[in-house]
Amino acid sequence: MTSKSKRNALSAVFVQSVHETGTYSDGGGLNLRVEKSGAKYWFQRVTIDRKRRNVGLGGYPTVSLAEARKAALLNARMIREGRDPLAEKREAIAARQRPPTPTFAEAAATVIEMRRPTWSNSKHAAQWSSTLETYAFPQIGSKLVTDITSADILAVLTPIWAEKPETASRVRQRMETALDWAVAQGYRIDNPANRSITKVLPRMPRTKRHHPALHYSAVPQALELVGTSTSRTTTKLAFEFLVLTAARSEEVRFATWDEIDWDERKWTVPVGHMKSRREHKAPLSKRSLEVLRLAEELSDGPSGLVFPGRRGKPLSDMVFTSMLRRLKIPAVAHGFRSSFKDWCMEGTDARWEASETALAHNLGNSTEQAYARTDMFEPRRELMEMWADFVAG
Question: Do 226 and 355 sit in the same domain of this protein?
Answer without folding.
Answer: yes
